[in-house]
Amino acid sequence: MLTQEIGVLVRSIPRLSPVLFSHKRCFYLKGLQQSRLLYASHPCQTLHVPPGLLDYAQHKLDKSDFNFAEATTVENLLSDIKSSLADRTELQLIIDDPDGDIEMVKLAQKDIESIDAKCNSLIKQVKEYLVPKEKYDSEDAVIEVVPGAGGQEASMFAEEIFNMYIKYVQDMGFSVGAVNMSMNSVGKNSKFSSSSGITRATAQISGINVFGQLKYETGVHRVQRVPVTGTKNDRLQTSTCSVAILPKPRNIEINIPDEDLKFEFVRSSGAGGQGVNTTDSACRVTHIPTGTIVKCQEERSQLQNKKRALEKLHYILYESEFNTITSSVASSRKLQIGNMNRNEKIRTYNFPRHMLSEHRVKMSHKFPSMVAFLYG
Amino acid sequence: QHLTQDQFEELNRLVSCRLARMPLQYIAGNWDFREITLQVRPPVFIPRPETEQLVELVLQNLPNENEDKIRILEVGPGCGNICLSLLHERSNILVTALERSQMAAKLTKENACLLNLKHRLEVHEARVDDTTGLPESCSVQRFDHFVSNPPYVLRKDLMSLAPEISVFEDLRALDGGAEGLDVVLPILRLAQDHLRDGGLVFLEVDPCHPHILPQHLEKSNLPFEIREVVKDFNDKERFLILNKIDK
User: Is the ipTM of this complex over 0.85?
Assistant: First the structure.
């Protein structure tokens, strides 16, 4: 299917991600590819267990650094590796035995080769789990498409790109919510849709590892085509739109240890206790690290005032954490899009030649039905 | 939003009550204590906020919620704030309460009904002093813990109470005698016979009591020692946890 073709291109980007921003890494990757080829052609792969790898993996398991699904997989991998290594030592004994039968030794050597190959691949899998994930990769995302240079043509292109992404994302199994499209009210309609483009469109996308999958889409997308507004001139026009993918933090965990809190209650005169009747059980809690002070006196029992105050404090800390994240995200958006000039493009959709060029990894791909794909 | 004539008259009536120094809680008719709301009416003693911490202390010293029933004796429940809070917050507690005031005992039973907790509470009208001991009508004779907010105000301090208290509340709920220990010591005597080994006595007291109680225990030959003294939110030594010692 067409979806898959472009999907393949788009999805291959993450695997080459170390390359995206540095030429040096480009050479490294090429080197790695070369050595992999070399590796693959060599029939005998020697076993290489990086020292400390298994201990480190076990340590992370014990510390519960993995989520449940990952932890089960890592556990299984580790136990497979351990049993393979145990088998290997036994086989090695057979080989090293000077009185051994030659046939047995040959068989043992063959078995060791296959165990080594299996172990190497298991170790590779474990390594993937050990590499720390990037910070927001598992979060949900918000996609924002804004037309750039190119006038109405850009608006229309932006709309098409936005719709394409919505469908793409749904194909990937994510769910889309809160779609917000600000349509252009004036202007001629395109041949393909009755609208005249958008001024801005956003959508919230939720699922598993959404941000990690979509983050490479951010940047300026450029299109080169004959404008679809159907005006008389058939000049090829270049326009841009910007795509920004922003992480939407789902669960901001706020942990407030008891030592960070200071509680104060209304003081009564004298010895207090039975000798005093008070209706004021107000509670004031200070969060020492941030200096936030919250007071609650709405409830009639001291315990309820205390609980309320803590809830309010929790919410205030949550809000400030959320604002920190979104402001850092907003600045990253600026970084992502820059000034939306035509020369800051990451990808060019060239309609006449049916070509898609990815500028970050300098790949070009011919898609005969690219137009059809963009329209779902 | 304007008040109707009836509402206005009612408000006037309530304000007059307050001007006559009636405690706000009696005017409202009910008040919150920890997580429950209790009916309060004169002259039954109004729960104080410090006592919320006493309940917290008891809960902290109970084992984690499990199947085993915990039997607690409370002396002087008043409107039932301590025992009903415990029953509300833990489903495996059973309480026997001894109350000398007929009106208070009635109010405690009423609150227990309203909170749906009466099946785990037994209220007996009885005095705790040297002569009576535990009423025979109690279905439980041996308890895991004792808890009480007994009258502990020293006689000399009784004179300087605000009118809210001295006019409207039952002074028998406050008067602890010359040294404030007139009820505390009989409670401990009762605990000597009816508290199981390893059980604890939780008391709310006057800040001077942690210092004078040990010599009284010595003098009266009561086999108890103060395990812990806990301060209230005003930084006064308010709570005692005592345990039996082998003699």
Answer: yes
